[in-house]
Amino acid sequence: MLSVTYFYREPRKTGVSIEGIFSLVKSCLQGRMEIKEFYCNPKLSRLQNIRLAGKSSNKINHITGDVNFLALGLKGKNILTIHDFGFYENPVHSKIVKLMYHFFWLYFPLKKVDIVTVVSEFTKQKLIGYFKYPENRIRVIPDPVKPVFRRTERAKPNSKPVVLMLGTGKHKNLDNLIEAANRADFHLDIIGWPAQDELEKLKNYGISHTVYNGLSDEQVFERYLACDVLFMASLYEGFGMPIIEAQAVGRPVVTSNIGAMKEVGQGSAILVDPHDITSIRDVINSLLGNKQLYDDTVALGYANAAKYDYKKIAEQYLEVYKELEAKNRK
After folding, report:
1. Cα separation values, 227 from 154, 275, 277, 292, Å
2. Phi-psi region of 142 (alpha: psi -120 to 50; beta: other; left: phi over 0)
3. Does 104 lie in the same domain as 17?
4. Is the CB of residue 252 less than 8 Å from the CB of residue 180?
C-alpha cells in the first residue's frame, strides 16, 4: 500500500491552518494509503528535529509547511508545500534573518525535494522568480474549504449592514477599511487582534464595530452567517482562504485586484484597488444597495467555491503521491 509521512511544525492550539488543511486531506485518503505523522518537538533544536525527521523518513515524505528545513534530513521521495513568501518578503526582517531564511528554509531544502506544491499560481511564479525552481516540478494545489463553511441563504439583510474582516496584520488592510467606513453607515465585525492605533481610530471615528478573537471554525462560520459582505482587500496574501469560505457560505466578497486574491476571486468576487479608500467604500455600498448585484455575486461565489471542495483537493495530492510512488519503483 502507498505510504506517506506528513511532517508538521510543533503541535499548537492557535494558527492551525496548515494542520487543518491536511486533516481534511487525510480524512479523504484514510484507508487508501498508509498515513504516518511527525511533529517537530519545540523543546529540541532545529538540528535535533532534522535528525529525528530523518529517522522517520518514509518512501514518500510530505513537509506540510513552515518547517521546510526538515527536508535536509529526509530520505526517500520528498514533497514540500509552500503556502506563500510573506515572511521572506517582509521588509521588517534584518538582513541576517532573511539570509538564514533564504538558505535554510528555502534554498537548501528546495534542493532536497522532488516536487513542490504551491497554493496558487501567484506563489508558483514567486518560487520560479526567486529560486529558478523547475516549473515541471511544481504542482499548484489550492487550499480546500472546510465543510463547516456550508451553504446558508441569508434570511434578510441586517438593518445596519455588517462587513466582516478576518485577520488583522497590517497587510490585511484594516486601516483602509476603517477609513472607508468613516463615511459610511455599516458595522464592522473584525476577527483578530487590531493594533492599538487601529482601535483608537475606530473609537475616534465613532465606527460601530465588534472585535472577536480565538474563535473556533464553527464560531467563524457563525460570523459569516451574521455578515452581509466579506472584506478581504489585503495588500498581500499567498492565497486568501476567507474568500472561498465566505463564498461557500453564500456571502459576497470584496477583495484585492492584485496577486493571489485576484487569482482566487476574479470572476466571482468584486475586485478593488486595496489602496483606494473611496473605491472600497463605493464597492461595498454598491453591493449593499443593489440586490441584483448582490445576488449575482453570491451565485458566482457558490460556483467558485465548489472548485475548492476538500475531496477534490485530496485527489490532487493523491495524484502527486502516486507519481512519486511510480518513481520509487524505477
Report:
1. 9, 23, 21, 18
2. beta
3. yes
4. no
What CATH number has the domain bearing residue 124? 3.40.50.2000
* Contact status, residue 301 vs residue 268, Cβ threshold 8 Å: yes
Cβ neighbors of 241 (< 8 A, separation 6 or more) are: 17, 143, 145
Averaged pLDDT in 10-residue chunks for the chain of 330 residues? 95 75 92 96 96 97 96 96 90 86 95 96 96 97 94 92 95 96 94 96 97 94 97 93 97 96 95 97 96 97 96 96 87
Distances (CA, A) of 81 to 62, 109, 174, 224: 8, 11, 28, 28
Residues shown for the chain? 330
* Cβ 245 vs Cβ 149: under 8 Å: yes
The C-alpha atoms of residue 298 and residue 249 are separated, in whole angstroms, by 9
Got the DSSP string for 160-192? S-EEEEE--SGGG-HHHHHHHHTTS--EEEEES
The Cα–Cα gap between 244 and 237 comes to 13
Q: What's the count of helices (H) and strands (E) in the chain, helices before strands?
A: 14, 12
Assess whether 212 and 300 both reside in one domain. Answer: yes
Domain count, the chain: 2
Question: Is there a contact between 125 and 83 (Cβ–Cβ < 8 Å)?
Answer: no
User: If you write DSSP's letter for every residue of 259-278 in order, what string do you get?
Assistant: HHHHHHHTTTSEEE-TT-HH
Task: Supply the pTM of this predicted model.
Answer: 0.89
Strand 162-166 relative to strand 138-140: parallel, antiparallel, unpaired?
Answer: unpaired
Show the domain range for 183: 162-308
In a domain, 102, yes or no: yes
Residue 251 lies in a domain: yes
- Helix axis angle for 277-289 and 291-305, nearest 10°, is 100
| Grid cell of 258 as nine digits | 492584485
CA distance 169 to 240: 14
Q: Is there a domain that residue 168 lies in?
A: yes
Q: At a CB cut-off of 8 Å and minimum separation 6, what does 204 contact? A: none
